[in-house]
Amino acid sequence: MSTHDPDCIFCKIIAGQIPSKRVYEDEDLLVFHDIHPWAPVHFLMVPKTHIASMAQLTPEHERLMGRMMVLAPKLALEQGCNPYPDGGFRMVCNTGTEGGQEVRHLHVHIMGGPRPWLRG
Ligand code: 5GP
Ligand code: ZN
Questions:
Q1: Which end of the chain has the lower number of beta carbons within 10 A, N or C?
Q2: How far, in Å, from the CA of 91 to the mean position of ligand 1?
Q3: What mean pLDDT is predicted for residues 78-101?
Q4: Could you tell me the maximum CA-CA distance found in the chain, to the nearest angstrom?
Q5: Distance in Å, CA 18 to ligand 1 centroid
Q6: What is the average pLDDT score of the chain?
Q7: What is the pLDDT of residues 11-41, one digit of tens each?
Q8: Helix (H, G, I), strand (E, B) or coil at 22
Q9: How far apart are the C-alpha atoms of 28 and 44, rounded to whole Å?
Q10: How far apart are CA 40 and CA 116, in angstroms?
Q11: What is the pLDDT of residues 51-85, one digit of tens each?
C-alpha cells in the first residue's frame, strides 16, 4: 500500500508540491537531481511510498529495492557518468542519524562524473 507523509519533503516532491528536476519516474519510483550536488552527476532515487529509511524495510520491499539497483547503472550513464570501469558511479544510502541521514524518506544517492568531487 502506498503511504504519504504530509510533513515529508520528498513526499511533497513526489506529489509535485515542491519542484524538482526529474530524471525518471514510474509507478513505484521517482528519480530527481539533488539540490546540492557533491559530484558532476548527483541524483536521488526514492520510492513513491513513504518509507522512512532502510531500517523499515521488510521482505515485501525486495522487488522495489532490487528495481533501484538495476535501474541505477542505466540512469547513471544517461545522466553523464562515464562507463565502467574507468568511469562508474557511487551509490550511498544513509540510514539514521549516525548513518548521516537528514531526510527521513528512504533515498539512494547516485554520484559520478570526473573527479575531484565536492564531497565523497
Ligand atoms: P541525506 O543526508 O538525508 O542522505 O541526503 C538528503 C539529500 O537531499 C541531500 O543531499 C540534499 O541536498 C537533498 N535535498 C534536501 N532537500 C531537497 C530538495 O528540496 N530538493 C532536492 N532536489 N534535494 C533535496
Ligand atoms: Zn516521504
A1: N
A2: 14
A3: 98
A4: 42
A5: 12
A6: 97
A7: 999 999 999 999 999 999 999 999 999 999 9
A8: strand
A9: 14
A10: 9
A11: 999 999 999 999 999 999 999 999 999 999 999 99
The pick from 11, 14, 36 for probing ligand 1's pocket by mutation, whose C-beta has the most ligand atoms within 8 angstroms, reads 36
Please give the distance, rounded to the nearest whole angstrom, from the Cα atom of residue 13 to the centre of ligand 2: 9
Concatenated DSSP letters of 48-107:
SS----GGG--GGGHHHHHHHHHHHHHHHHHTTPPPTTTS-EEEE---STTTT--SSS--
Which atom belonging to ligand 1 lies closest to the Cα atom of 9? 19
pLDDT of 1 above 70: no
Q: Which amino acid is at 30?
A: L
Q: Which residues are catalytic?
A: 107
